[in-house]
């Protein structure tokens, strides 16, 4: 086909584009992926039975605040990277804020407890399972985000994959916290974060392949 | 005729709203611009130029939703073209240094169009004198880097760095980065 014919056929298809089409598509993707992950948590793992009473304590809220802020910050970075002229995103550095705050809580918790408890507070009962579960639960959200990107124009594919993976990990960790009954800040800081970082690494690995256009 | 950033942007906004006429005009103007852009950078692969022009037009079309109407259109369009070129070299497994987006915009002559409303001199005056002089001589007056360097007893790399830093802060000022 010569270029003039191509222009003819392209300009014959000018379906109007909704304003905020990128934002909408991204929201739909996150909502769909998160719904699938929520199903896995509810029907696969089961929600913790003492959730209602746990909501009187601060640990649940701490986990929600930490995972939600990680997910939202990484999602903003991902959104920024959907446009071709995006520069290296500095917003990912904002992730250091929730990490730093949770680190402070962990230090305070450790200071209030005898050193003999420290190891148990750090490892909890589920450290061997937690990160892997966050990683697995991140997959539906990551798949949905990659689907959304089929219409976007990222130019830094590895970074975009990593940001999308981290966002998926953050939201997956948020949903997993409805199952997990660990209470220590050091536990969350280590094992939840490890799960999110693993999801980001996976995203960075597949990004250059799956986000190409 | 050289279309200005404002005209292209208005056509794109029309196209996004479903105006086929404006959109067609936009693609008609973009095709030769893209041909020149790739032609200059793929001198030994002229047969690939038209393929890249078409691929870029298709990408601009299918990904037009990612254009944020509050931002410069040419920066967006050249970013798509730049990506297509990087992808082309990647497929060929050739490594070539590729200019940053702001350098491309200058090379394609769009920094003046973008700033058509602002007098280029008043824009340059916002920069440190050394950077402003380097840009004026190499990009506006058309001197080579070596000529500009000779004139002021500077090194070539000093001139290049001044130009690069100056363009970077201009690009930031014009909202290109």
UniProtKB/TrEMBL annotation, chain A:
This is DUF1109 domain-containing protein. It comes from Sphingomonas echinoides. InterPro entries: NrsF. The keyword Cytoplasm does not apply. The chain crosses the membrane at residues 26-46, 58-79, 91-112, 132-149, 161-178, 184-207. Keywords: Membrane, Transmembrane, Transmembrane helix. The keyword Glycoprotein does not apply. The lineage of its organism: Bacteria, Pseudomonadati, Pseudomonadota, Alphaproteobacteria, Sphingomonadales. Signal peptide: none annotated.
Automatic annotation (TrEMBL), chain B:
Pfam families: Sigma70_r2, Sigma70_r4_2. InterPro entries: RNA_pol_sigma-70-like, RNA_pol_sigma-70_dom, RNA_pol_sigma70_r2, RNA_pol_sigma70_r4_t2, RNA_pol_sigma_r2, RNA_pol_sigma_r3/r4-like, WH-like_DNA-bd_sf. SUPFAM superfamilies: Sigma2 domain of RNA polymerase sigma factors, Sigma3 and sigma4 domains of RNA polymerase sigma factors. Keywords: DNA-binding, Sigma factor, Transcription, Transcription regulation. Gene3D superfamilies: 1.10.1740.10, Winged helix-like DNA-binding domain superfamily/Winged helix DNA-binding domain. The keyword Transit peptide does not apply. NCBIfam families: PRK12539.1, sigma70-ECF. Belongs to the sigma-70 factor family. ECF subfamily. This is Sigma-70 family RNA polymerase sigma factor. It comes from Sphingomonas echinoides.
């Amino acid at each position: 086909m010569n270029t003039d014919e191509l222009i003819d056929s392209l300009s014959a298809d000018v379906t109007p584009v909704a304003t905020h089409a990128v934002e909408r598509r991204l929201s739909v993707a996150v909502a769909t992926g998160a719904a699938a992950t929520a199903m896995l948590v509810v029907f696969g793992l089961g929600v913790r039975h003492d959730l209602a009473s746990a909501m009187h304590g601060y640990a649940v809220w701490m986990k929600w605040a930490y995972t939600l802020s990680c997910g939202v910050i990484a999602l903003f970075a991902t959104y920024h990277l959907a446009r071709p002229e995006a520069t290296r995103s500095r917003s990912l550095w904002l992730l250091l804020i929730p990490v730093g705050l949770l680190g402070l809580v962990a230090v305070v918790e450790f200071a209030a407890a005898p050193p003999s408890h420290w190891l148990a507070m750090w490892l909890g009962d589920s450290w061997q399972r937690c990160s892997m579960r966050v990683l697995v639960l991140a997959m539906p959200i990551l798949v949905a985000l990659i689907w959304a990107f089929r219409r976007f124009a990222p130019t830094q594919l590895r970074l975009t994959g990593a940001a999308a993976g981290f966002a998926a990990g953050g939201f997956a960790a948020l949903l997993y916290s409805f199952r997990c009954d660990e209470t220590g800040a050091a536990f969350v800081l280590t094992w939840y974060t490890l799960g999110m970082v693993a999801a980001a690494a996976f995203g960075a690995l597949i990004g250059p392949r799956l986000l190409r256009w | 005729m050289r279309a200005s950033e404002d005209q292209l942007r208005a056509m794109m906004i029309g196209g996004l709203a479903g105006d086929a006429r404006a959109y067609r005009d936009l693609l008609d103007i973009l095709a030769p611009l893209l041909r020149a852009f790739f032609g200059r950078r793929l001198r030994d692969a002229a047969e690939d130029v038209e393929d890249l022009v078409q691929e870029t037009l298709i990408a601009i079309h299918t990904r037009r939703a990612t254009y944020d109407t509050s931002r410069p259109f040419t920066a967006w369009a050249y970013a798509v073209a730049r990506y297509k070129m990087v992808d082309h070299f990647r497929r060929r497994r050739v490594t070539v240094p590729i200019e940053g987006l702001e350098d491309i915009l200058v090379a394609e002559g769009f920094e003046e169009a973008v700033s058509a409303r602002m007098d280029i001199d008043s824009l340059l005056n916002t920069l440190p004198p050394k950077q402003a002089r380097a840009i004026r001589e190499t990009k506006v007056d058309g001197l080579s880097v070596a000529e500009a360097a000779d004139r002021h007893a500077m090194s070539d790399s000093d001139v290049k760095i001044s130009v690069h830093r100056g363009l970077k802060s201009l690009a930031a000022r014009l909202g290109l980065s």
